[in-house]
Amino acid sequence: MPPRDADGGAAYRLVSAAGVRLDKFLSEEIPSLSRSHAQKLIADGCVLVDGATVKSNYVSRGDQTVEVTVPAPAALTVAAEDIPLDIVYEDDWLIVVNKQQGMVVHPAAGNYSGTLVNALLFHCGGSLSQINGVIRPGIVHRIDKDTSGLLLAAKNNAAHLSLSEQIKAHTVTRKYIALVHGGMREDCGTIDLPIGRHPTDRKKMCVTNKNARNAVTHYTVLERFGNYTFIECRLETGRTHQIRTHMAQMGHPILGDKVYGVKKEKFALTGQLLHAKVLGFTHPESGRYMEFDGGIPPRFEKILKIL
After folding, report:
1. Using one digit for the tens of pLDDT, what is the confidence trace for 289-304?
2. Helix or strand (DSSP H, E) at 23
3. Would you call 86 a catalytic residue per the annotation?
4. Which of 15, 17, 160, 280 has its CA 20 to 30 A from that of 106?
């Protein structure tokens, strides 16, 4: 166990390995630290190499002294709210919910109440992982506000680390259904195009090679409706707005998508017709593979019947 500071934080003194990035080294040496958490600590000046601050991508020469201070978690300030949840599965380690369209996952500027986190805090009490801090307790992955469907939250740090590693290793099954504009020619295919922040609109993503990350989406046509196509998308990676960006790039934007879609819609929709339908993962404690199906939401059924 590392020594504890007076405020409840932890302090580590390590000897670096040669040729390894600092953030990777820390996440491997300190099991409770994810790589993103290590990067934040480095950026905040909580990590010293031979007494000096460095960047996350610093590569050690080896046998250097690495001092790490992990501050104690701040007191949780996000309010618990009694908001009904559609719970698909729950145990002492995790919870799977079917998020409704229009609900924000975690508090952020302009949305500090009414989020899934507010609801989870009420339902789970203090039983949520703290790896992602006070604003995103328990949140392992996210889906957009106007995307509905299955979302997984961790109730302890061990579960969070295990599930995060599964997502990183692309072993989590994530299948979405979507209604897109246009008649797609192929019955199935793979979109392998890098995604990065839009150069002029910071709220959007785009296909680009500049400051981008690889993004892979596999799609299958489920049904054709002339100028519309009902598809299933399986995520290999999970970039921000990945399916929405990829489908728009292919000339088949999702119905109701006010950011990436067409300006004038035939149907009066309040959000994109994109639903996280299937979620599968290995349970952190039992090691058993579990898979859940969130069905087809009523807003989808309504448009499918019309078409």
Report:
1. 999 999 999 999 999 9
2. helix 22-29
3. no
4. 280
